[in-house]
Design a protein that fits this description.
57% of the residues lie in helices and 0% in strands. By secondary structure, the chain is mainly α. It has a domain of 35 residues. It is extended. 0% of the residues are buried.
Length: 51
């Protein structure tokens, strides 16, 4: 099942997502649903500055 999950996440990869939507392989709604399912890790945010 891990391979199936990895392949599904690859479809949502930011670098591929727009092209896959244009090709009709995934829909904008599928992307929105995937993004909504991600956990909110904002409490682990650590800001840094680069000099």
């Amino acid at each position: 099942m891990l391979l199936n999950q990895a392949l599904a996440e690859k479809l949502m990869d930011q670098r591929l997502r727009d092209r896959l939507i244009e090709e009709g392989k995934i829909t904008k709604e599928e992307v929105d649903k995937f993004l909504a399912s991600l956990p909110d890790d904002s409490e682990n945010l650590e800001e840094s500055t680069v000099k």
